[in-house]
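TL;DR need structure tokens for one chain.
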Amino acid sequence: MQTICLKAMEKSPNQRYASAQDMAEDLRRFIGDLPISARPISLVGRIGKHVRRRPGVTALVALIGLLVPAVAVTYSLFRGEALEKQQASQALQAQAEEQLSEKRQLAVEAWLRGNSAKAEKVFKELIREYPNDYPSLVNYANFLKDCWLAEGAPGLLEHSLAYAEEAIRIAPAEAVEAWNTKLIVLRNMGRYADALNACDQAKRLQPEYYPIWANEGTIHALRGDLPAATKALRQACALTRKERGPLPWRNLAAVEFALGESGAWETLETAFALSSEPWADLFALRAAMCLEAGEHFDASRALQDATIAHGICGAPCENPHIGRILASAQLANEIHVDTTMLVKFLADVEGLRRADLHAVIAQALTAQGQNVKAAQHARLASACANEHPSNQMFAAVLIKRGLWITRRTAVQAVLANEE
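>> reply
TL;DR here they are.
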């Protein structure tokens, strides 16, 4: 019925019934359940009608229908192009980082193998090509510091300090290693107050970074403040993982021994237990402790350990303190001729300006009955001792990170006996 009525009401005459009779015929067919001649409007026809009734809306819908796919295609193209550029950029960045890492490794390997010329060249290339690369700046600062320790060339510490400070400027929030390098350089320059300030800055960044505490302990020891050195070194030992080696324990034992603390022996045994290979400083320190008067005095053990340390070290000039301890052990075992020869050699190496060396020579010469020469060396020892401030109880030096501490009272006692 709806189809018949819609056909009868079509706007276009050509689409309506030709006559009322034709419409009546369709109605009779509908009543008789027979097929009618009128047909429902197709989808295309309905769309056409809608377009004719609302041409503006239809045009807008059509435009949107065209634009959406166009925009989608364009976005897909641009997105694909941007993704390709991003991937290309990431690939270039990864390649640059790989090249930087390889160059860093090349510089460090040359440094560790002792090829200073090659390491210097590669480090300079790194700094020139990557002036803001924090690891390269810190490594180069440490390299220059180590070159100064090996060669003592002027200007190396100043350059090392400059690169450490540049690393701190570039990455202030993560510069604990740069601060550690800076404080070591300042310590080696004798600027102990500035070095302790650098320690404080580093501890604010990372209070559990054990090298800061270990280095602070050595600085306090070099200043003659052994109680403060003990506190800092004990904190370093508490923080460090044992696989890092025996250095903090060894230096703590040296400080505790100088202070006369009984715990020095236990600390030294811990250092021995943590040492993966024979270390001359450990044997030499135990020899020195065995030479101390008291319940642990053992002259033969001291001579044995001092001989081992001397053999590991290779030559007295490498570490005069080890040679001095060997000479003292020889003297304690009444090997006077060897003592005199060794200590005279050491005195030449040290420039004849060490009170403890002259004191040992004086003791050895006295034992051999050479009192005139003994008196000469005793006077030299007294003169050397008086060059240092009288209010300091201890004289400390740092040789290849190992602390060596002499009690001034021990030297003075020797001098008093010689007089």
